[in-house]
Amino acid sequence: MSRYPRLMPAHPRLFTAQVVRSERRSPSFQRVTIAGAQIDEFVWAGFDHWFRLFIPPTAGAALVLPDVAGRSWWKPYLAIPEPDRPHCSNYTVADVRQAGGETELDIDVVLHWDAQGRVAGPVAIWSVSAAPGAEVALLDQGLLFDPPGDAGGIRLVADETGLPAVRGILRHLPAAAVGSAILEVPTSGDVEDLAAPAGVHVTWLARDDPRATPGALALAEVGRRAAPGRNDYAFVVGESSLATQGRRLLHRAGLPKARITFSGFWKHSPTASIAR
């Protein structure tokens, strides 16, 4: 992949917003809904539209944001003194709707727990404790999903961190689309009904064992599938090994690298997990 995805805006905008509510969506997902005058101006492109989420470094702290000039934001971000520097993570827009005369935007956060059974990770902790009115910000990053005009079958592969992206892609594919979606999630309770074209087959894989390696079930399923057509397009996202090995499997099966979008959203550690 190039340094900047083709569909990333050249001058991404930084939007500020406030938390409206937070609620458990399934055993492994917390949904945080945000809104605000600037979110009313957010232009949602559908599919896997993603953004960089900024939250205060600690509960109750002020939200100090970097200056954004064109695509430049990282150096100004690092220039913020560490005690004041907000936490930044990448997320996909889970949904957008009009409610009560304002725009609401949903963020689905994957939950992980430490050895003591406590929610772990800055964004996960924030998601379950965020009170209405809490300040957040998002930096628009556009789309990664970018099939060529002659794409045949669409092949989607993701773990739980890529579920919001695949959900959005399935929702916005044309009705005549054909292909498959392989979705691995932590538990059977995370499986959901997805809106998808009739020609796209959705396979759910639930680990149901907290000791299982994330992405292993999805990779095995990719290996079992029939070889892709040379005009297919694949989108493989989630844990780092799932993304890279999934791409390798599809390429070895005959799909050109240029027709595979892949991205590692997090890296699994046997002793600690990171929520995207």
From TrEMBL:
Residues 12-148 form the FAD-binding FR-type domain. GO terms for molecular function: oxidoreductase activity. Pfam families: FAD_binding_9, SIP. This is Siderophore-interacting protein. It comes from Pengzhenrongella sicca. The lineage of its organism: Bacteria, Bacillati, Actinomycetota, Actinomycetes, Micrococcales.
